[in-house]
């Protein structure tokens, strides 16, 4: 930054505060050719003047009746935390203690009287130049921050659009899942709000970035991109072998997220990918350990996975398929409730039930019918055994749960 670039076209304005009339007149005589000079004899008049004049620099005497220079300076700082007008003490006090006190308060300089006129002018000019440069740097930083903010918003918008396109791609391939991905996002939003309102799992939800999380939820079934059309589009029940292939959508989804993470190592916001990874990996795990692919149980399953399981299955239950009718919302809620502590985290089902009016309003205002994975082959219903800690836990299926397992 060159010196010339900060020299203003206008005259700099200086306010001089001094109770000694002769001293004030001498100061003004020295400075008036170079600067616009206002002089005031007391703190009271100084603060009145400051209501109408914003000087580039303040020259402050220290010893004055009533309010001294140090007090004036302290008041200036106390009344405006962004106070950035350079202050120079111009005083008859010439002991090191007074100078140290003035500079410690934040004064730009400390000049003792009697002063040398050319030196006074030079030190004022130096202080003003430094102040101008500091202000220019501040403006530059503000512009830079604004520019980065705009670019970040644009990148986030682009990221969001890409995610939407990917999720639409998944739905486009899976003929039966019209609207499922977007609707589960809205259901998730209702549950997230309720978790915050009711303080459910508050320690974890406090750390979540809501918008990124909701965007990530669009990717929970991204692995279906890799499932063959014959299985993904089969209008009837899947065989156990076909079901095993379908279940691979979790593993494929994990690979896709890992690939995105590697490709966007330096540019993407990785917290969104972390959410996406959890949602993809754990949305088919079940509280009792009978889910897939890992057979985790209880709080071994990350909370986000348990949450996604609730909205994913509920949306599937109320969906119409070629091989099943859509359930009523109340029947679906009943099934969800019956499977609290079995398929689902009981705390999350309590939360889900507390939001049933909002959910009813969402579904009944016409987001269309929901769809999810093809049906579960009853013959494989006991296939999912979770072997943990050496215990083989066979899973029982209550009658009403057949529908649930057909939907998840
Ligand atoms: Fe899924």
Per CATH, which architecture of the largest domain? Answer: Orthogonal Bundle
Helical amount: 40-55%
The span between the termini is 65 Å
Unreliably modeled segments: 1-5, 367-401
Give the tally of structural domains: 2
Can you count the beta strands? 7
Count of separate DSSP helical elements: 17
CATH class of the largest domain: Mainly Alpha
Query: Which class of secondary structure composition applies to the elements?
Result: alpha/beta
Overall mean pLDDT: 84
CATH topology name of the largest domain? Hypothetical protein af1432
Q: What characterizes the major β-sheet?
A: 5 strands, parallel
CATH-defined superfamily of the largest domain? Hypothetical protein af1432
């Amino acid at each position: 930054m060159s010196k010339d670039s900060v020299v203003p076209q206008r005259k700099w304005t200086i306010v001089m505060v001094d109770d000694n009339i002769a001293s004030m007149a001498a100061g003004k005589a020295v400075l008036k050719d170079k600067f616009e000079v206002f002089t005031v004899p007391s703190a009271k008049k100084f603060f009145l003047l400051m209501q109408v004049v914003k000087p580039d620099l303040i020259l402050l005497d220290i010893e004055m009746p009533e309010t001294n220079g140090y007090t004036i300076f302290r008041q200036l700082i106390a009344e405006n935390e962004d106070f950035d007008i350079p202050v120079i003490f111009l005083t008859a006090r010439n002991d090191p203690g007074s100078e140290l006190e003035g500079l410690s308060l934040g004064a730009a300089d400390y000049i003792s009287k009697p002063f040398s006129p050319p030196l006074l002018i030079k030190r004022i000019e130096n202080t003003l130049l430094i102040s101008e440069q500091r202000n220019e740097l501040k403006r530059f930083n503000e512009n830079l921050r604004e520019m980065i903010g705009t670019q970040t918003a644009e990148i986030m918008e682009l990221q969001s659009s890409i995610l939407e396109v990917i999720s639409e791609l998944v739905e486009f391939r899976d003929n039966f899942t019209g609207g499922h991905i977007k609707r589960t996002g809205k259901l998730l939003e209702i549950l997230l709000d309720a978790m915050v309102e009711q303080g459910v799992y508050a320690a974890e939800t406090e750390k979540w970035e809501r918008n990124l999380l909701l965007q990530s939820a669009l990717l929970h079934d991204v692995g279906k991109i890799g499932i063959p059309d014959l299985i993904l589009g089969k209008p009837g029940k899947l065989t156990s072998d076909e079901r095993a292939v379908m279940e691979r959508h979790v593993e494929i989804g994990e690979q896709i997220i890992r690939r995105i993470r590697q490709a966007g190592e330096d540019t993407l916001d990785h917290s969104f990918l972390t959410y996406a990874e959890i949602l993809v990996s754990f949305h088919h795990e079940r509280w009792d350990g009978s889910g897939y692919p890992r057979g985790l149980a209880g709080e071994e399953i990350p909370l986000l996975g348990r949450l996604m399981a609730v909205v994913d299955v509920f949306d599937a239950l109320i969906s119409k398929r070629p091989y099943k009718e859509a359930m009523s919302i109340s029947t679906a809620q009943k099934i969800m409730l019956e499977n609290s502590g079995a398929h689902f985290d009981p705390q999350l089902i309590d939360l889900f039930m507390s939001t049933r009016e909002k959910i009813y309003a969402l579904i009944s205002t016409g987001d269309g019918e929901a769809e999810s994975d093809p049906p579960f082959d009853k013959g494989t219903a006991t296939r999912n055994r979770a072997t943990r800690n050496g215990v083989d836990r066979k899973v029982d299926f209550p009658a009403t749960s057949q529908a649930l397992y057909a939907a998840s």
